Amino acid sequence: MKTGFVGWRGMVGSVLMDRMQQERDFDLLEPTFFTTSQVGQAGPDLGAGSTPLLDAYSLDDLAHLDVILTAQGGDYTKNVYSALRDRGWKGFWIDAASALRMREDAVLVLDPVNGARIEEAIAGGARTFCGANCTVSLMLMALGGLFEAGQVEWLSSMTYQAASGAGAAQLRELVAQTVALADAVGEDWNDPEVSVLELERRVTAALRDEAFPHESFGAPLAASLLAYIDSAMPGGQTREEWKGMAETNKILGQDPPVPVDGICVRVGALRCHSQAFTIKLRDPLPLDEVEQRIASANDWVRVVENTRDATFSELTPTAVSGTLSVPIGRIRKLAMGDHYLGAFSVGDQLLWGAAEPLRRVLRTILAS
Ligand code: NAP
Question: Which residues are catalytic?
Answer without folding.
Answer: 134, 273
